[in-house]
Write a structure and sequence with these properties.
6 helices; 4 strands; Transposase_17_sf
């Protein structure tokens, strides 16, 4: 599979999972450390619009602020730093993540909005946990008045405001809940 080349100023869905679907976050501390390392290695090179950390995979929506080579190397350093710390903590060796992180370029605002909603709904549809209360997604941070490293104003503007952001998530969640109930 040929990997998408990262381009400055473009938006991307970045995601990956554990090798063979293995757990990459054993506990909340692992997720907190992952987010800290994300900030440490990438915050000056990408804008973060959304994220969700599940037990065996993660999703990020980012916009590149730096050139491809620098961002790619920073992602590599970030993932390596997390994997080394995780392996040390759990006395394991070898790869933690699948070979290359996946990336999909987002070419229009409709897809970008749909992806943000999809990412935030992951806890409900994978873990049967209410996405509104899940601690390790950007949903709560975007709605909060607290300062954050997320581009929450940009996200809210993309949805036409806070009310429409909430409405879009609830509407999609209701649709999926009814769909899965019928299956």
């Amino acid at each position: 599979m040929k990997l998408e080349v990262l381009e400055k100023e473009c938006y991307y869905h970045i995601y990956n999972r554990g090798v063979n679907g293995c757990v990459i976050f054993e506990n909340d501390d692992n997720k907190i450390f992952f987010l800290r390392q994300l900030s440490k290695y990438l915050l000056d090179k990408v804008s973060i619009l959304a994220y969700c950390l599940m037990n065996n995979h993660f999703h990020l929506v980012v916009q590149l602020k730096a050139e491809q080579e620098l961002v790619t190397q920073s992602f590599s350093n970030f993932f390596n730093s997390y994997a080394k710390a995780f392996n040390k903590q759990f006395n394991r060796t070898g790869s933690l993540f699948e070979k290359h992180f996946k990336r999909i370029k987002l070419n229009d605002e409709t897809y970008l909005r749909q992806l943000i909603v999809y990412i935030h709904l992951n806890p409900t549809h994978h873990l049967e946990v209410d996405f509104r209360t899940f601690k390790f997604s950007s949903y709560q941070a975007i709605l909060s008045s607290k300062e954050t490293k997320l581009e929450k104003e940009e996200v809210l503007l993309l949805f036409g405001g806070k009310e429409n952001f909430i409405f879009s998530h609830n509407e999609r969640n209701d649709y999926l809940s009814k769909k899965y109930a019928l299956e």
